[in-house]
């Protein structure tokens, strides 16, 4: 309910323009109907309607005094002065003779309905209505586009006036440095003399750069809520149209609107849609997008000064932007909006948890430690998933268990317990995941295990989730070698337990992950002793914006050496995983049997199992016992079914935090 004492509250506006237009055209339509009805009734004769046969009988009996004969209607007067009318029968040639024999006065009359104005009006009424509707639609299109020919050349920028749901800097958490940079712009707008007296000039533009979901658009909304000046918002794709020249016209119109409302802020979201590097178009590269970009460059810093207009743009692809757009004088500041660290994640969780009733056992710090690599949007989704889980379980408060289950769902995918797996498929998956886990435990540089499961999740039949103990900003060579070994652990476990002839396709994603990692180590990160610290591959934006990877030093011998080094890294990881699992085969059987019994184990439970040989779950019934298969034996035939047909992905690379 609105506050009647609010001095800033605007009086209610008049009726909606659409409603007014509909009322006008409705009135015109009713007036036309009234005219038609008036003209239609003007020429209608009055009198009693009788049948033609009754008319002939009345003539024969001498009751008719006079008649008027028409092609469409016969009207007349009876002896008692009553009037009548009847429809004649065509080709009745005896009617005149019958009237003469009975002494009835008769005469002819003009054809009914020959009023020219009425005829034209009735015939043209549908066309008038169609033209009226088309004119009304055209007017609305012009108003929606800001006028002009169909509004194509007018800006689609909208002035943001958030009277409800206003966002301020208090709602932005976890990205303090970026917030401080933009807060300075707001302070400049509120008190420009404070900065200008020392010769400082207001920045012309600020570019927000960061991964998807880090809060770039939220920061812009907070600026709109804090600045107290007009705030225009538009998307980069709104400039681009199929007609050449329209985008440039919209840029001009947007800056004209901004000049009228200066000082103001213009926010362009996803500016990479219009600001990509020039030279990738068709023909002579003089396409619509490049004309739009040229106009934007001129308006931001050309011969005409745009004082008091601050451009804020957001993108997650700064590498594709044109260099002319990024120079000082256009975008003076590039504000990096990073993935939040553990303190930032805790603050972001605190902001989103204010909207959720929490149980006393919920600890945001613990959740923040278990979600490395999560962006602000990921954390908001995590809180929402936890609230939905609590509602599904008919709980009044969201407890820590819901947050843990929601985290597993977000990081590993939803459980597919309805999926039917045979005993042999489940056993193969258990040894595959146990292989990953055992190698991870014995690789010192590997991240600790968070959870291991053989319940199908997402596209995988099973998964071993590892999480780093702290936020990592770079990876060392020993950790990459450990990741390669862990990725090979699943395939090696299948080879040791079931033999080379019985390995499954479940290691496909592991092999893909290991190959990509080894290729990057050799070609991009200079981690090959034979090839040295050189970059052999680079990613470039190709024709029409399509990305492509090419080798920069692509000699025949070099290519052979690159492929040999990649193969050597993967095969070396396979050998290390084989050594670890062969040496710790008893632990492999112990962990695989535990996973078959309990399906999901936490990292602490795996550690306890390997140290003590047992897991303490007194309240949970144990599953069926499985015997250790002899080395190289075939997978036993399945009898009982647990749950559908397996997917190819039994393992898969463990997510490294996000």
From TrEMBL:
Keywords: ATP-binding, Cell cycle, Cell division, Cell membrane, Hydrolase, Membrane, Metal-binding, Metalloprotease, Nucleotide-binding, Protease, Transmembrane, Transmembrane helix, Zinc. The chain crosses the membrane at residues 22-42, 116-138. ATP binds at residues 210-217. GO terms for biological process: cell division; protein catabolic process; proteolysis. One of its GO terms (cellular component) is plasma membrane. It is a multi-pass membrane protein. Its cofactor is Zn(2+). It is found in: Cell membrane; Membrane. InterPro entries: AAA+_ATPase, AAA_lid_3, ATPase_AAA_core, ATPase_AAA_CS, FtsH, P-loop_NTPase, Pept_M41_FtsH_extracell, Peptidase_M41. One of its GO terms (molecular function) is ATP hydrolysis activity. The active site is at 433. In the C-terminal section; belongs to the peptidase M41 family. In the central section; belongs to the AAA ATPase family. Acts as a processive, ATP-dependent zinc metallopeptidase for both cytoplasmic and membrane proteins. Plays a role in the quality control of integral membrane proteins. This is ATP-dependent zinc metalloprotease FtsH.
């Amino acid at each position: 309910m609105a506050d009647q004492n609010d001095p800033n509250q605007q009086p209610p506006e008049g009726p909606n323009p659409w409603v007014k237009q509909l009322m006008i055209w409705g009135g015109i339509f009713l007036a036309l109907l009234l005219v038609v009805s008036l003209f239609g009734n003007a020429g209608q004769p009055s009198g009693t309607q009788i049948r033609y046969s009754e008319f002939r009988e009345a003539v024969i009996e001498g009751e008719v005094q006079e008649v008027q004969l028409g092609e469409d209607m016969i009207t007349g007067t009876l002896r008692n002065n009553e009037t009548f009318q009847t429809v004649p029968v065509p080709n009745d040639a005896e009617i005149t003779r019958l009237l003469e024999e009975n002494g009835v006065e008769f005469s002819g009359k003009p054809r009914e309905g020959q009023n020219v104005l009425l005829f034209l009006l009735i015939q043209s009424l549908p066309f008038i209505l169609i033209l009226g509707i088309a004119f009304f639609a055209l007017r609305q299109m012009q108003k929606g586009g800001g006028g002009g020919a169909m509004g194509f050349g007018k800006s689609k920028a909208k002035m943001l006036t958030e009277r409800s749901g206003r966002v301020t800097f208090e709602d932005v958490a976890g990205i303090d440095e970026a917030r401080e940079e933009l807060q300075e712009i707001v302070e400049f707008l509120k008190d420009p003399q404070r900065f200008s007296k020392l010769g400082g000039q207001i920045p012309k533009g600020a570019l927000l750069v960061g991964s998807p979901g880090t809060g770039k658009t939220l920061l812009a909304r907070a600026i709109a809520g804090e600045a107290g000046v007009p705030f225009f918002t538009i998307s980069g794709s709104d400039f681009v149209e199929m007609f050449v020249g329209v985008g440039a016209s919209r840029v001009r119109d947007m800056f004209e609107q901004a000049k009228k409302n200066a000082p103001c802020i213009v926010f362009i979201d996803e500016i990479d849609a219009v600001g990509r590097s020039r030279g990738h178009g068709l023909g002579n590269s003089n396409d619509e997008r490049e004309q739009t970009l040229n106009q934007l460059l001129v308006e931001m810093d050309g011969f005409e000064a745009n004082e008091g207009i601050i451009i804020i743009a957001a993108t997650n692809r700064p590498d594709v932007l044109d260099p002319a757009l990024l120079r000082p004088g256009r975008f003076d500041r590039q504000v990096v909006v990073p993935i939040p660290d553990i303190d930032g994640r805790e603050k972001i969780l605190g902001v989103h948890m204010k909207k959720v009733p929490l149980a006393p056992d919920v600890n945001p710090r613990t959740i923040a430690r278990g979600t490395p690599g999560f962006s602000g949007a990921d954390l908001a989704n995590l809180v929402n998933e936890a609230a939905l889980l609590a509602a599904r379980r008919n709980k009044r408060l969201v407890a820590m268990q819901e947050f843990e289950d929601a985290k597993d769902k977000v990081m590993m995918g939803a459980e597919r317990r309805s999926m039917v797996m045979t005993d042999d498929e489940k056993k193969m998956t258990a040894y595959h995941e146990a292989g990953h886990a055992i190698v991870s435990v014995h690789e010192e540089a590997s991240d600790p295990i968070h959870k291991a499961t053989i319940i199908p999740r997402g596209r995988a039949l099973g998964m071993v989730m590892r999480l780093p103990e702290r936020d990592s900003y770079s990876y060392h060579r020993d950790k990459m070698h450990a990741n390669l070994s862990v990725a090979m652990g699943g395939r090696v476990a299948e080879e040791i337990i079931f033999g080379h002839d019985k390995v499954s396709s479940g290691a496909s994603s592991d092999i893909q992950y290991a190959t990509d990692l080894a290729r990057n180590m050799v070609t991009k990160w200079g981690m090959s002793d034979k090839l040295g610290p050189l970059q052999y591959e680079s990613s470039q934006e190709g024709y029409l914006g399509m990305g492509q990877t090419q080798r920069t030093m692509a000699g025949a011998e070099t290519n052979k050496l690159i492929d040999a080094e990649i193969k050597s890294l993967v095969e070396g990881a396979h050998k290390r995983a084989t050594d670890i699992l062969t040496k710790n085969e008893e632990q492999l059987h112990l962990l695989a049997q535990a996973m078959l019994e309990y399906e999901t184990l936490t990292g602490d439970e795996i550690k306890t199992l390997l140290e003590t040989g047992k897991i303490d779950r007194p309240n949970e019934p144990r599953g069926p016992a499985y015997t250790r298969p002899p080395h190289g034996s075939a997978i036993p035939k399945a009898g009982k079914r647990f749950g559908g047909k397996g997917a190819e992905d039994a393992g898969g690379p463990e997510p490294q935090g996000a």
